[in-house]
UniProtKB/TrEMBL annotation:
<feature type="transmembrane region" description="Helical">
    <location>
        <begin position="229"/>
        <end position="247"/>
    </location>
</feature>
<feature type="transmembrane region" description="Helical">
    <location>
        <begin position="268"/>
        <end position="284"/>
    </location>
</feature>
<dbReference type="Pfam" id="PF13536">
    <property type="entry name" value="EmrE"/>
</dbReference>
<protein>
    <recommendedName>
        <fullName>Multidrug resistance efflux transporter family protein</fullName>
    </recommendedName>
</protein>
<feature type="transmembrane region" description="Helical">
    <location>
        <begin position="136"/>
        <end position="152"/>
    </location>
</feature>
<keyword id="KW-0472">Membrane</keyword>
<keyword id="KW-1133">Transmembrane helix</keyword>
<feature type="transmembrane region" description="Helical">
    <location>
        <begin position="96"/>
        <end position="116"/>
    </location>
</feature>
<keyword id="KW-0812">Transmembrane</keyword>
<feature type="transmembrane region" description="Helical">
    <location>
        <begin position="68"/>
        <end position="90"/>
    </location>
</feature>
<feature type="transmembrane region" description="Helical">
    <location>
        <begin position="198"/>
        <end position="217"/>
    </location>
</feature>
<feature type="transmembrane region" description="Helical">
    <location>
        <begin position="158"/>
        <end position="177"/>
    </location>
</feature>
<feature type="transmembrane region" description="Helical">
    <location>
        <begin position="39"/>
        <end position="56"/>
    </location>
</feature>
<dbReference type="InterPro" id="IPR032713">
    <property type="entry name" value="EmrE"/>
</dbReference>
<feature type="transmembrane region" description="Helical">
    <location>
        <begin position="290"/>
        <end position="308"/>
    </location>
</feature>
Amino acid sequence: MRPIFLGISAAFFFAFTFILNQAMDISGGSWIWSASLRYIFMIPFLICIVALRGNLKGVFKELKASPGSWLLWSFVGFGLFYTPLCFAAAYSPGWLIAGTWQITIISGTLLTPLFFETVHTGHGPLKVRGKIPYKGLIMSLIILLGIILMQLEHSKHVSLNNILLGVIPVLIASFAYPLGNRKMMDNCMGRLDAYQRVLGMTLASLPVWILLSIYGLFSVGMPSVSQTLQSGLVAICSGVIATVLFFKATDLVRGNMQRLASVEATQSMEVLFTLIGELIFLSIPNPSVLSWFGMFVVIIGMVLHSYMTQITKKKQFLENKRNVRA
């Protein structure tokens, strides 16, 4: 249950991303600065945290050992994740983006065959290719059904152009985030803790944010003081706290793709936290009864997903053990 709790806590702080990005867009801020400033501001905070824990040297050692992998998968996991989300904020409200983002539950599950998981047998640990947990996938579809119900009424008032520009970037991000995260977990092989890995990926993705900032400087000019402060808040709440909590949760289930998919499913809570935040701080209209019912479906879907994942995990272990003996 600890990984699940950490995942839900991460979802709470991740919700600040959608709420504040929407607030910045409403006030006229550019998505370019919303994306780049978050990760630039994250660096000093993360360096202080890792340094105080006495683990800074290990980060630079890993970066030096395989710079190509760090640059590639940090670009995928952070660059192709956050830039599209910020871009989408210009075309959809925060809670709608948070709802669409839950497709990452499906995306993360579909990525399972690309990785190997550790199975402990009577002959010792064995690496086997992950299999898509179809029962868990069905539970994920229930979660997505709840998300659709929450978006249904709002979608009637959104143009097709805004739907595409608000949805397609989020779909790209939904695959990029779990892919980059998992690849870096494999690359680190448990040598770095969650704080170190977040710092390493942030530093490795820095070229992306520098180039984006240069583009923003010439295309939209300098960011306002308000956007700079809000981006700093996103960096702390979402970039540092939420990311570390989520990476810690995934570290606890590293090597088991089914449990990893269950942790990633907790991120469906983001839409609930985002909607509540926008109701309080951005004074959006109260959701309909259908939307509230959708939230209830999401919660039920999460519980069922977690339950089925545990059952599937036990059956898969027994099956792999029989196959090894054979």
